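User: I'm putting together a teaching handout on how multi-component assemblies are represented. Below are the sequence lines for each component of a complex, exactly as they appear in our records. Could you produce the 3D structure of the whole assembly as structure tokens, so the students can see both representations side by side? Please keep the chain order the same as the input.
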Amino acid sequence: MAIERHLNDTVVVTNLEWFVNWARKSSMWPLGFGLACCALEMIAAFVSRYDLSRFGMEVARPSPRHADLMIVSGTASKKMLPAVLRIYEQMTEPKWVIAMGACACSGGIYDNYAVVQGIDKYLPVDVYIPGCPPRPEALLDGILQLHAKVMKEKSLAANPKEKSIKAAV
Amino acid sequence: MMTQQEIADQLSARFGDDIRFSTFRDQMSAYINKEKLLEVCAFLKYEPTLQFDMLSFVAGVDGLPRKPRFEMVYQLYSTTHIHRFRLKTLVEEEADGWGEIESVTPLWITADWHERETAEMYGIRFLNHPDPRTLLLPEEWTVHPLRKDFPLRGTEQDTPDLPHVVK
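Assistant: Of course. Below is the structure of the complete assembly, with chains in the same order as your input.
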């Protein structure tokens, strides 16, 4: 604190890791894609009533190369899975995954031959949001939990986060 | 517009004993032999008083352990006369495990996708179908999920999550 006082409080001193984490969580751009009915709740979270832009997240990126967060919003069918994995691979590090809704978490009511029984079999999920579908408040809560998690990351360590897809693709 | 009974009477007058009727909860179904399918369908479509110019739906039914095992259901609609009719035909399981029936795509092109879905879901082969690929299921799957003897969850071998998972 001493330096700031010497300079008449014209600067703020912090540590670099905190600053990097703060920058990442304050403009975490989600990927603009939805898989099923949960996507409608996600859209509701984006628009004015719930307004994700309060958290610097209104910029849903259609291109995975600009996106930081993949919200797996809905049922991942087995035919869709290769596309989801391919999009995840195209996202640049650092990247995070939210499993939104019962289907993305565990397959939900679709305990059958056509649906992937939980996207965490293939993607490193950071936050699970239960519900069928979860309300926008639940999604916002999950996103804030993810922000809190990002603030605790060792983002400057040599290997901050192991994020490799488990299946060989 | 004709009532179900009037349509049935007209079919009986034309095809006699080749066509049978059953009524369940005031809804009538006509049963025919599958060899007569195209003939009866052409009559239903082109007869001026019937004019079933629209095929609403084609469905399959697995009646295991009944024999013949499968049933094909054709829901017909006439945009001219505003009336509907249901046609059914029984299909037996062949030696190779598939059912076999003529495609109705020459009469109603909309049967294309309906028959492709029925083919993969029930394992019924449609003869003279213009485009006999799978519609919904991955190409490499060889199972028929809507058959009664199919395990609902599938199996790791028959319905893998990814086509390239190393076994």
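A couple of points students might notice: The two ends of chain B are 59 Å apart (CA to CA). The helical segments of chain B are 4-15, 37-46, 111-122.
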